[in-house]
Amino acid sequence: MFLLLSSTEGWSTDFQKELDVYNGTFGVSKLIKFQKPAILVTERGMGKRRRLRGNKKRMFRSEPCTNCEELEGFVSPSEIDDEIRRMVGKYRGGSGAENVAIQQARGVIETGLYPEFISGAHCPEIDSEKWAIDYSHKRGRAALHRGVDIPQPRGTPIRAVADGIVVGRFLNKGRKDGIAVFLRHTPEQTGLKFWTYSQYTHLQEMSPLPIGAKVKIGVEIGKTSNTGRMGRRIRRDALHFAIFYSAYPEWSNDGSIVTPKKGYFMDPNAFYRLQPPYDSQSMLKLPKNQKAVPIPYMRTNGSFVPMETKRIWPYPCE
Q: How far is CA 180 from CA 64, 189, 265, in A?
């Protein structure tokens, strides 16, 4: 068992408790009592939709990932709280005020962080589709953007942001997500003090990497596109990039989504910070002069900046 022995000064109280629980400080784990978010995205156009749905808010039905069963940390989907499925948006009706409240409590709030590429490199940048912005106008009901979008020409290779293992591959037919791949990263692989999961969405085609494939930092895991159900507007070619994290190594894949045990969302910019905090509530309180995040990356020639980095931007830089 990997023990989290490093200092965690700067964490929010809730996540600090989870780290302490995992290390045995408090003994038996208990569910966290999450604080009410200060601001809740306004819900729009709910009347008709609610009448159509009634009171049914069932989970999407899908087949569990049998190829995941032998992988480190995998547990049955039944061992993951429904609250986590609401967090990742895979409850039927993934948006909506109730789900948004859970998502905000578990990290989907704007932090003010922004990338600052080391040595002034020219890197593909996040466009207007930034972390945790209000998506209600796109969904017709309360919704948040649970990641960042990085536009690139169709077919541009997307790179693994750290060493890891493939724990999810989803076609997401009929859904907005489009083709998606998930990697799981251990603390040793990232240099962080917890388990992280990177999500790459709207891929051009399913990645050839199978479930259980071990990948090295910088390896191609898919190509850029705009797959997924669209509304009236054609979606531009871009990577939707998201990060989950958890103090616990357990996770599941029910055939629809990867769900880390007692997981949280992280501002993807924060994934590259070298020191805590990483939780959104704490990062929101950082002074303005600490909002820029130095971003490590891979050059187009395959070298890394800095050379010893364990985390990189999902596209090469020049």
A: 16, 22, 17
Quote the DSSP letter at residue 219.
-
Q: Where are the alpha helices (DSSP H) in 120-273?
A: 136-139, 187-190
pTM over 0.90, yes/no: no
Type of residue at 205: E
Percent of the chain as helix, strand, coil, to the nearest 5 = 20, 25, 55
**DSSP H or E run through 46:** helix 46-53
Report which residue type is found at 202: H
The CA distance from 107 to 87, in Å, is 9
164 touches 153 (CB < 8 A): no
The backbone torsions φ and ψ at residue 120, rounded to the nearest 5 degrees and listed phi first, read 70, 30
pLDDT digits 0-9 by tens, 104-119: 999 999 999 999 999 9
Q: What is the dotted CATH code of the domain comprising 49-305?
A: 2.70.70.10
DSSP 254: -
CA distances from 120 to 123, 217, 306 (A): 9, 21, 13
Handedness of CA 73, 75, 77, 80 (dihedral sign): negative
Whose CA is closest to 201, among 219, 175, 164? 175
Tokens found for residue 83? 């609250």
